[in-house]
Write a structure and sequence with these properties.
Elements (H helix, E strand, L loop, with lengths): L3 H14 L4 H8 L3 H9 L6 H10 L3 H5 L15 H12 L2 H27 L1
Helix pairs in contact: 1-3, 2-3
Protein name: Helix-turn-helix domain-containing protein
InterPro entries: Cro/C1-type_HTH (IPR001387), Lambda_DNA-bd_dom_sf (IPR010982)
């Protein structure tokens, strides 16, 4: 089980990713702004009904409870900031979203290879 503070930090990241203030997020979830703030600070954990409202807002609830830590680049890391950001979006995406991300990446690679071939053969 994860700590309340880790849950709260993840919830805050999801809210900011959606571009919402605490008040806007609380309204969408059908709760008071103060309650939302207590979730983000790790004072309280939401009930099942509130978690369902998070899901309806587009928050991947399972990622709020995931035991694994987010990958963060470091000085000696082989993963760049952009790669870490992309991985974060991929992990938070729905199945359809993941398929779109993979399709876009594969399409970009094919287009880049095609452009290289044209320059080489030109």
């Amino acid at each position: 089980m994860i700590s309340k503070s880790l849950f709260g930090n993840r919830l805050k990241e999801k809210r900011k990713f959606l571009g919402l203030t605490q008040a806007q997020a609380a309204e969408k979830a059908g709760i008071e702004r103060e309650t939302w703030g207590k979730y983000e600070r790790g004072v309280f954990m939401p009930s099942g009904d509130v978690l369902l409202s998070f899901l309806n807002m587009g928050i991947d609830v399972s990622s709020l409870f995931a035991a694994e830590k987010e990958i963060r680049p470091s000085e000696n890391s082989e993963i760049s900031k952009e790669e870490s950001e992309l991985l974060g979006y991929y992990r938070e995406a729905s199945d359809l979203g993941r398929a779109v991300i993979l399709s876009a990446a594969r399409g970009a690679e094919k287009k880049a290879a095609s452009s290289t071939d044209k320059v080489s053969n030109g």
